[in-house]
Amino acid sequence: MKMYGNWRSAAAFRVRIALNLKGIAYEETFLDLDAGEQLRPDFLAINPQGAVPALFDGDGPPLTQSLAILDYLEDIHPEPALLPAEPRARARARSLAQVVACDTHPLYVPRVRNRLMEAHAIPREEMLGFVRHWFGRGLATLETRLSTEAGTGRYAQGDAISHADLCLVSLWVGTGIFGVETAAYPTVRRIAEDCLSQEAFARAHPLRQPGAPA
Description:
A four-stranded mixed β-sheet has the order 2-1-3-4, with helices on one face. Helix 1 packs across helix 7. It has helices spanning 10-22, 41-44, 66-76, 87-101, 110-120, 124-148, 163-178, 186-196, 199-204; strands spanning 2-5, 27-30, 54-56, 63-64. By secondary structure, the protein is an alpha+beta fold. The radius of gyration is 17 Å and the shape is globular. The protein has two domains: 2-79, Glutaredoxin (3-Layer(aba) Sandwich), CATH 3.40.30.10; 87-204, Glutathione S-transferase Yfyf (Class Pi), Chain A, domain 2 (Up-down Bundle).
């Protein structure tokens, strides 16, 4: 498989983890988002949204949107499973994943931050407060659910890694990049640190990718 990504892309991070866990070989081409490479005509012909990741698997157009890619990988390479078999547990894992990928991550991506700063003359430090606020809301939601719902085990859903953990980790790693306070989220921390101690997660870490700061 071939993928377009970026070192700091939380969405590409999630897909890298899944590929590593499933033992699927892939080659990643890294775009410089700060330089606007995702907006070049040749990449817009690949993904008109101008966003990463974009995954190629054989013939046909690329697959985009991290959760859709995760579902695709689950369908074509079901072992090791990254979603529970039981319907309610499966729905809960997806719900937790979507707290991050659908309701938190979209609020702090560069294209949103840059547009708000340009259109409304928001100072960079004020924008950083905006980002930290939404990180906090996402983390607080996860912490409340994970610490009170019976479905939580060693991982977000039971005792096996699921899409929920991939998304949780992608949010957790961002707390270090943006300087988000994390003391109030011990359950999230426990699960994230467990995951990041494993090779498939560690190898996918943003700071281990080409272009990442030393």
